[in-house]
């Protein structure tokens, strides 16, 4: 199974100290060079992601080209465009994306998409996490993770943590 990731999911799981979930759920995760550069830049900052280490299961892969439809899409940043391009080139089984514009573009190309929230729910359902509410609280409060109240309720309901 080939899984490609954009930066945000990697940062969020590393922030939680749960990048081990990537290995448990997918084994290796492939990332394009732009994602590696963005992760390194953000982890070198003094911000909320400062000091984070790239998940050990990530393997950087060079892409041959970014399709012009992705490269010129003003809704996508370079990491999202390269991640989607790498997923296309490698015929990936899934792509890890949090941002709605990137998810929309990947969905239009037929990819299975997991975001941070979906990964946490899946990990709980597979017995890898006892609960997700504390992780979500930490992401929202300390990690500036943006999520609507209705989506948060839905996720906690799916995870069996809210009636």
What oligomeric state do these chains adopt? single chain
Low-confidence stretches: none
Count of DSSP-assigned helices: 9
Shape: globular
CATH architecture grouping = 3-Layer(aba) Sandwich
Distance between the termini: 35 Å
Q: Strand order, biggest sheet? A: 1-4-5
CATH class: Alpha Beta
Radius of gyration: 15 Å
SSE string, helices as H and strands as E: EHHEHEHHEHEHHH
Main sheet properties: 3 strands, parallel
Q: Please bin the fraction of helical residues.
A: 40-55%
Overall SS class:
mainly alpha
Query: Count the strands?
Result: 5
Q: In total, how many domains does the architecture comprise?
A: 1
The CATH homologous superfamily is named 5'-nuclease
- Strand content is 5-15%
- Return the CATH topology: Rossmann fold
Could you describe the 3D structure shown?
- There is one protein chain.
- The protein is mainly alpha-helical and 163 residues long.
- It has a single domain (3-117), classed as Rossmann fold (3-Layer(aba) Sandwich).
- The protein is built from 9 helices and 5 strands, in the order E-H-H-E-H-E-H-H-E-H-E-H-H-H.
- It has helices at 7-16, 20-26, 33-43, 68-71, 78-90, 100-108, 116-125, 133-141, 149-158, and strands at residues 3-5, 29-32, 58-61, 94-96, 112-114.
- Strands 1-4-5 form a 3-stranded parallel sheet. Strands 2-3 form a two-stranded parallel sheet.
- Helix 6 (100-108) links the parallel strand 4 (94-96) and strand 5 (112-114).
- Helix 3 runs antiparallel to helix 5 (78-90).
- It is globular.
- The model has no long low-confidence stretch (mean pLDDT 95).
